[in-house]
Amino acid sequence: MMAKNKEPRPPSYAVSVVGLSGTEKDKGNCGVGKSCLCNRFVRSKADEYYPEHTSVLSTIDFGGRVVNNDHFLYWGDVTQSGEDGIECRIHVIEQTEFIDDQTFLPHRSTNLQPYIKRAAASKLQSAEKLMYICTDQLGLEQDFEQKQMPEGKLNIDGFLLCIDVSQGCNRKFDDQLKFVNNLYIQLSKSKKPIIIAATKCDECVDHYLREVQAFASNKKNLVVVETSARFNVNVETCFTALVQMMDKTRGKPKIIPYLDAYKTQRQLVVTATDKFEKLVQTVRDYHATWKTVSNKLKNHPDYEEYINLEGTKKAKNTFSKHIEQLKQEHIRKRKEEYINALPRALNTLLSNLDEIELLSWSEALKVLEKRPDFQSCFVVLEKTPWDETDHIDKVNDRRIPFDLLTTLEAEKVYQNHVQHLISEKRRVEMKEKFKKTLEKIQFISPGQPWEEVICFVVEDEAFKYITDADSKEVYGRHQREIVEKAKEEFQEMLFEHSELFYDLDLNATPSTDKMSEIHAVLSEEPRYKALQKLAPDRESLLLKHIGFVYHPTKETCLSGQNCMDIKVEELLANSLLQLDHGRSNLYHDSANIDKINLFILGKDGLAQELANEIRTQSTDDEYALDGKIYELDLRPVDAKSPYLLTQLWTSAFKPHGCFCVFNSIESLTFIGECIAKIRAEASQIRRDKYMANLSFTLILANQRDSVSKNLPILRHQGQQLANKLQCPFVDVPAGTYPRKFNEAQIKQALRGVLEAVKHNFDVVSPVPTIKDLSEADLRIVMCAMCGDPFSVDLILSPFLDSHSCSAAQAGQNNSLMLDKIIGEKRRRIQITILSYHSSIGVRKDELVHGYILVYSAKRKASMGMLRAFLSEVQDTIPVQLVAVTDSQADFFENEAIKELMTEGEHIATEITAKFTALYSLSQYHRQTEVFTLFFSDVLEKKNMIESSYMSDSTRESTHTSEDVFPRSPRGGSLDYNYPDSEDDAEGPPPYSPIGDDVRLLPAPSDRSKYRLDLEGNEYPIHSTPVNCHDHERNHKVPPPIKPKPLVPRTNVKKLDPNLLKTIEAGIGKNPRKQPSRVPAAPPEDTDQSDNYAEPIDTIYKHKGFADDIYAVPEDSQNRMIKVRNSIVINTQGEEENGFSDRVSKGHGERRPSKYKYKSKTLFSKAKSYYRRTHSDASDDEAFTTSKTKRKGRHRGSEEDPLLSPVETWKGGIDNPAITSDQELDDKKMKKKPHKVKEDKKPKKKTKTFNPPIRRNWESNYFGMPLQDLVTPEKPIPLFVEKCVQFIEDTGLCTEGLYRVSGNKTDQDNIQKQFDQDHNISLESMGVTVNAVAGALKAFFADLPDPLVPYSLHQELLESSKIMDKTERLHELKEIVKKFHPVNYDVFRYIITHLNRVSQQYKTNFMTADNLSICFWPTLMRPDFENREFLSTTKIHQSVIETFIQQCQFFFYNGEIVEAPNPVACQPPPSNPVQMVEPMVPLQLPPPLQPQLIQSQLPADPLGII
């Protein structure tokens, strides 16, 4: 029963694998594959299959437990399941024959039978025999699996006969077949099943296989299975078929031919391989190892299947290939990154096309290695190539391996880089060319869309070359530039119109009417219209500006970090700290100087010669001067010395002055350059305060030939450089001297040094202790505009460079203190430096004793801000106006600067203020003494100012501005009894903004014609009015102020006599008329623009205040107040036009007015805005714009003809001065009543002009009639011939010929020398071409009559209107023939010369158009005062241009030149727009010759000025 319950054991079969065996002689070099077949069946996994099994063994191995001295191997057993699910166990025995490795004969065993009989044995036995695995197992059995052969005898159940069907190794197939046949016969005797296994079918020989099949077919039930142990094909099938033959109950297996079975097996392998490769591709890091990956994948079925089929070795190889691919992919990407980064590196290191355009790649590599930034872009590796080093793993190192650059890819990148630079250069050039094209298109306005412009540039070459994106980018950049420029100009315009904004109540918001008024005024400005397409931006800028006006702070300043308040605080914080630290070293007692250190600068030994001359005049280095002995320490240095700056200033030698000696133009050039270097060094390092103030003295050495022709030029150039540098010039004394230097020269120079030392060191004793430094006697506010083109250091240098300057009390970061002797006592002056916007609150709320108002003479907005601020300042507070520019030469060279400086001095004259200037290129006017007179004036008026401040009942008790001063003003001044010092007692330097030799007011000898008013103003005395006592009564100002004494000015020249005659004539012809007390009505012919209150008389008028009133004197009896051309009743009406109720307040005390009512300029400027927006005002109230346009010209001021609005000097070239005749104007006005609505064209009137004399010397040649200068033999004036010949020989190609102004001194010198000697050679004078050109123009300007007669002007203009070109030219030709013969010859000569000049326009840039602009006023000398002429100026110019262009046609019967017609063909408008009359600038000697006041002085021939 129990036996039935036990599971049946699976049947067990023993299979013996037999085949050809024996020695090498018997079987050949290799076996028939029995072992491989057994190995593959028993251990089918690829890793357990060993393709090599040897039968040659040593005696030891043969006797080991695996072989066990037997000629058969036990391969173990395999449990196999059939298709029916029944398992069986198959023991595999391999019958072989082992050969002794010594004798190469079969080993001796217990069974000595031959192989054929031994292989057919049906029972086998071997005690403790171990299972065979591989050859390596022999001798190392303990390292392998140990499994014993079943104990006892093992019955063989079947045989597997192996036949090798491959080519074999030294074995004949027939011999094998014969051996197999004998073996088969022996096996068949055992009656056991037999199957033939055709082995090595993967190397099958077809006919061998056919013979085997034939052999099997001859036998009964003998089956052939085609196998391959290497590829595991049909191995299991042959064993399964044998088991079926042993066990009939099993299903018969299907025998598959080798090829079909091989395909099936390979398909399994391919599928498994694909799955495994996909599995391996999940690894992305090429640093991964097989050990790590196999451990992760060992349980994956795809991994296990592939390992079983192909083995670990193949799996590892597959993995290694994948890793190598990953690495190569990484290297490829890195290389690609390097190649892509190479262009950027080349752009960085080899960006200069000119340097590399012609270099090969190898040459470029050498240049590349020398670049300082080479290491930042490239890396040189110790080992190469780079892809076999660890550099490939340094992903964060973006540097390119240098050995990579040797590849073809890198060289191709370099070539592309060069080509890119070439194309980029061309592209940039075309973009810039297109940019310039856009700049030339005038109609492009800010905000204009690109679509509106593209149609105008489609044919442009540059536009066609660049891309659309580039075109839009360039246009966008151009738009940004013009928009930014337009916004800046708009902002500047707002500042220029400051009066529009700063007259408002800053505690309120602007009303709608005020905004309308602002827009109405600004809309007339081109800068306002320029932002028409950007109206929102324009409105935003306007509102931002208004917001800043209402709430001005440093943070909201429109100039940003250029805000004056910020820059002042920074400068004072640094400068005052340095002053405090070094104050003990700043005080020197120069009054007792007994030793003078002199630095002597010269060229070519000239300095040593001067030093020797001084020593010759000295005794033991002691020099007697003015009764005092001085010890001299002389240091002569050559100007060419490279150690000039180091020798100049040492710790042991600090010069008091520097003598600069010259004797030629070359040496003067060196001197100028050296002085510039010294001053630049001093200003940069600021190593000593006195270094910047070092005194220079120019000394001209004698030529030892008093008649030397170069001496006048040297004298002029030396004086000009001295004026430029603001230093003394010591000329050669008159007479003949045998030596180069004269004793008088040396003494004059030494006196200048002593005076400069006294001036610079300020002679101040150390400041004694002051108990309360916060108290100040005077509080002065200096105002400057933010963004002005000068440094803050410049305007503060008069204070900071003074030794009496110190810091203000804590908390006042924008103030400093000065200790100055004013009068007889020392005073403490607090200077507070503020921007104009910060000063507004101070002006309203703080006690200020005086204002120093600074403005830039280069900026109209600066003057506009000054006017707006000054207009609201009380007229009791003294004011000092300061103009800032580069040098005095700016006044002559730049008309805009000249106009602004003139306007500043004009305003100062009107309000009795002080006026001075600061120059950035000059040290002389940066002294505190510039303001000494102003401080004295402030101190004199201090009590009145403080009384007015305390009694002002309308002053607000609170304010919103920052506290600048302490709130409690002192009633009196605190005097400090300090020792007097000479420097504080000194008067100001003799100074004028235009030059020291110019006087703007009459000399003291002419003061009898003038009187002083209570403010110290001068005005001409005319007929005394009857009511003069009313004048005196109405102009009392408590407390009384004494008239200021006249300050003597030394070395001051008068104006040119011709100008004074013109002024005196104007005064004589315009005496003040005795006014009637109460006229019935205002005369209609009275010019309303002149309705200003006079300090001499007042005139009644029935109506209320006129708009042009600017000062209101008060009546002490509360009676009717008399104002010129007006009468006001004391009522309680509202104030009108800015006048407060002070008109009705009297009681013997005049409340302070504002400066805008005292200055005609300030008042008229304010009223001009009012008139623009109130055009409906009555004729008696306002001077309307339409009325202004119909006026021929303004009346001159009766107070000062020189400063009157008569446009004596127009803004043109060669405009003669025309003096206004007041009586003639009055007569014309009376003859024709004024009608507002009529606009009749005034009749033309031909005038004969007598031009003022430009020269300041008498001449028998220049200024003479043309007929007196020519002869029939020589129809051209000799001077004209010489100038033209010189210009055509030496300077026909000079850039800007006749446009660039020549040096006026040289021009005058040329004419002076020609006056003395008509045979003089211009070449020998060493003058420039521009100077000769200027002298030539001056010759024609000096002629009594213009070269083109006035009588033919109208005909020329009429003919120029002819539309047909040929007809027009013939008509002009006929008119030219009407010239006087002398004029005709000279005109032809000069036009021919200008034609030759225009032919060189490519080099001199002077086309016929440019030349005509420069020459037509000189040749035609038009009437600039005629309003109609202003609309025909272009036609005048085009006439001269036509003559120049068609010179051959007009004068030499040549053909008409086919050139664009420059002559205006359109007739002038019937109603020409009147030009705005500018303020009359002050003209300087030599006066009254505008054509010689050039817009720009040329470069000095010496190149130093």
Automatic annotation (TrEMBL):
MF-aspect GO terms: GTP binding; GTPase activator activity; GTPase activity
Subunit text: May interact with RASA1/p120GAP.
Annotated region described as Disordered, given as residue ranges: 949-1003, 1025-1051, 1064-1091, 1137-1158, 1170-1252
Residue span(s) of domain PG2 pseudoGTPase: 779-944
Lineage, broadest ranks: Eukaryota, Metazoa, Chordata, Craniata, Vertebrata
InterPro entries attached to this UniProt entry: FF_domain (IPR002713), FF_domain_sf (IPR036517), FF_RHG35_4th (IPR057284), P-loop_NTPase (IPR027417), pG1 (IPR039007), Rho-GAP_domain (IPR051978), Rho_GTPase_activation_prot (IPR008936), RhoGAP-FF1 (IPR032835)
Name of the protein in its database record: Rho GTPase-activating protein 5
Comp. bias regions, Pro residues: 1037-1046
Keyword Nucleotide-binding: yes
Domain PG1 pseudoGTPase: 590-763
UniProt source species: Hirundo rustica (Barn swallow)
Chief location bin: membrane
Membrane topology: Peripheral membrane protein
